[in-house]
Amino acid sequence: MATHIKITRTRSTSGRTEKEIATLKGLGLTYTGRVRILKDTPEIRGMILKVAHLVSIEPYDQEGK
Questions:
Q1: How far from 49 is each of 27, 63, 64, 65, CA to CA, in Å?
Q2: Strands 35-39 and 4-9, sheet pairing
Q3: For position 2, what pLDDT does the model report?
Q4: pTM for this one?
Q5: Is 29 a residue whose pLDDT tops 90?
Q6: For 7, 25, 27, 60, which has the most beta carbons within 10 A of its beta carbon?
Q7: Strand order in the sheet with 55-60
Q8: How far apart, in whole angstroms, are the C-alpha atoms of residue 43 and residue 26?
Q9: What pLDDT is recorded for position 61?
Q10: DSSP annotation of 52
Q11: What does the pLDDT look like over 5-19, one tens digit per residue?
Q12: Are 9 and 34 in contact (CB under 8 A)?
């Protein structure tokens, strides 16, 4: 099981709520196309659930890079 996840922002924040924009900023996804590799924790998973319609998620294995 991967201990990290790769998150890519795929959609714009136009017309989104302040909370959704703040959540994306908290994840470090400041612009469309930005990719972040974060630890797979319950806190991060909760943030992703709030903006799941704006991002794509895939497991990330550090050995395989």
A1: 12, 26, 26, 25
A2: antiparallel
A3: 75
A4: 0.89
A5: yes
A6: 7
A7: 35-39, 4-9, 55-60
A8: 11
A9: 85
A10: G
A11: 999 999 999 999 999
A12: yes
Cβ-proximal residues to 4 (8 Å cutoff; 6+ apart), any chain: 37, 38, 39, 40, 59, 60, 61, 62
Share of the chain above pLDDT 70, in %: 94
Residue with tokens 């099981």: 1
DSSP conformation letters of 11-49 = S--TT--HHHHHHHHHHT--STT-EEEEE--HHHHHHHH
CA distance 63 to 60: 9
**Tokens standing for 11?**
């959609």
Q: Which token pair is 60?
A: 């990330």
In one-letter notation, the amino acid at residue 10 is: T
